């Protein structure tokens, strides 16, 4: 009995060693091979690095540039290949560090392009690659990187895959190959980062600027088409149709213009609706015109000058859509809000009542502006020249405008008319 017990104890270590040896079939799971024996910390590090590269490659799904996407894929393939090399862990670790540094440089450099691509309409993302191809230097830089990584991948293909019996025989050969891979990757990173004194960040920044400009131009075209559905009247103070109303002699009406300027631009203004009335020929239209010219450029304004001699300028139903069109073309923030409002408004019908027009095309977009906002002036001149005053539509229009002025603290409503109106 005692000898049997001794024999059992003496065989226990051998049994433990045999349980850790690779199975003959070679089908042990990757996770098991990464975390066994003395090599497990390095294996785990290599595995994590490869997984991170896979994530980086996934991120290129919103990077519509074939050359850069291929570079990320090549880096992932390199890490996967190096992970299968069992011997020369120190050399493998050095190569991995170089690949990680190159991958990080690529990710950092392309983040600006990735962000611009995300903002673009999916149908327009091909513009990214077209814009990059327009830069000869950047195109050469990306193509050079891709070619260098292809050559490095060819070297990595000569590494011997992980086998429990092969580490000793191929250690020296693999060490040399890993050293060459390390040097080639470092050289690729250096060449990509800067050539001829030109940093890749500068080249990519230029591409991002072009992309932003292209996207801005595209949105301007889209917004223009939407805003044209408002069918605005040519009734602003800039129109040649109002030229005869702009004949205020220089140096005249100084006091009233100063008063009106202060009223229109004062942020904390308790009286936000002002009516200028007087008999025909007293120069009301000229005062309104002069005030709008004075505020142009520094303040947001919109105006409608009624004119009984022009069909589009004497229709009360054209007022709110015209004002919305002008505001959208005066301020970038308002443009996006009003374009959205126009789409929603006309989805409910082409011809709508004044209260729906004002609420959906003007009041609602204005309420969505961030506060505090500089005062916005809306000027209406010559109400007495409106021709379609059926069912007292002019009074309804004025009441709606005054209500908007009271509800929105940064809106100023300026109305010029004859006393009877």
TrEMBL record:
GO terms for biological process, alphabetical = cell surface receptor signaling pathway
Which stretches does UniProt call biased (Polar residues)?
13-39
Residues in coiled coil: 128-155
Report keywords, A-Z.
Coiled coil, Repeat
Q: Does Repeat show up as a keyword for this record?
A: yes
- The answer to keyword Hydrolase applying to this record is no
Q: Where is this region: Disordered?
A: 1-40
Give all residue intervals belonging to the NACHT domain.
272-421
Q: Which Pfam families match?
A: NPHP3_N
Q: Which domain of life is it from?
A: Eukaryota
Composition bias (Basic residues) maps to 1-12
Q: What is this protein called?
A: NACHT domain-containing protein
Species of origin: Obba rivulosa
Q: What is the lineage of its organism?
A: Eukaryota, Fungi, Dikarya, Basidiomycota, Agaricomycotina
């Amino acid at each position: 009995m005692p000898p049997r017990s001794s024999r059992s104890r003496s065989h226990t270590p051998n049994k433990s060693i045999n349980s850790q040896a690779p199975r003959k079939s070679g089908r042990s799971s990757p996770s098991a091979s990464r975390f066994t024996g003395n090599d497990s910390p390095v294996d785990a590090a290599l595995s994590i690095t490869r997984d991170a590269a896979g994530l980086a490659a996934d991120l290129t799904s919103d990077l519509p540039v074939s050359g850069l996407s291929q570079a990320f894929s090549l880096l992932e393939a390199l890490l996967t290949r190096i992970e299968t090399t069992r011997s020369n862990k120190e050399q493998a670790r050095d190569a991995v560090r170089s690949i990680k540094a190159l991958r990080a440089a690529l990710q950092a450099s392309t983040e600006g392009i990735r962000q611009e691509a995300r903002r673009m309409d999916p149908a327009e993302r091909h513009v990214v690659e077209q814009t990059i191809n327009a830069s000869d230097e950047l195109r050469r830089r990306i193509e050079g990187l891709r070619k260098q990584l292809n050559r490095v991948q060819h070297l990595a293909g000569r590494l011997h895959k992980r086998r429990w019996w092969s580490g000793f025989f191929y250690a020296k050969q693999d060490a040399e190959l890993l050293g060459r891979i390390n040097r080639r990757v470092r050289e690729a990173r250096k060449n990509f980062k800067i050539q001829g004194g030109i940093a890749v960040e500068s080249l990519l920044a230029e591409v991002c600027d072009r992309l932003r400009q292209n996207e801005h131009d595209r949105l301007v075209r889209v917004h223009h088409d939407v805003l044209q559905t408002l069918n605005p009247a040519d009734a602003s103070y800039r129109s040649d149709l109002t030229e005869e109303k702009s004949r205020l002699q220089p140096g005249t009406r100084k006091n009233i213009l100063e008063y009106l300027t202060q009223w229109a631009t004062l942020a904390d203004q308790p009286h936000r609706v002002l009516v200028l009335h007087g008999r025909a020929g007293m120069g009301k239209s000229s005062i309104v015109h002069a005030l709008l010219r004075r505020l142009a450029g520094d303040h947001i304004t919109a105006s409608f000058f009624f004119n009984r001699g022009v069909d589009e300028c004497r229709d009360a139903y054209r007022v709110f859509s015209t004002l919305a069109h002008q505001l959208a073309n005066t301020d970038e923030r308002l443009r996006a809000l009003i374009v959205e409002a126009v789409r929603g408004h006309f989805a409910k019908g082409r011809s709508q009542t004044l209260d729906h027009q004002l609420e959906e095309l003007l009041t609602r977009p204005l309420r969505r502006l961030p506060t505090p906002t500089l005062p916005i002036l809306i000027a209406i001149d010559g109400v007495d020249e409106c021709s379609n005053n059926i069912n007292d539509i002019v009074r309804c229009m004025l009441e709606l405008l005054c209500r908007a002025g009271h509800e929105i603290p940064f809106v100023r409503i300026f109305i010029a008319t004859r006393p009877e109106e």
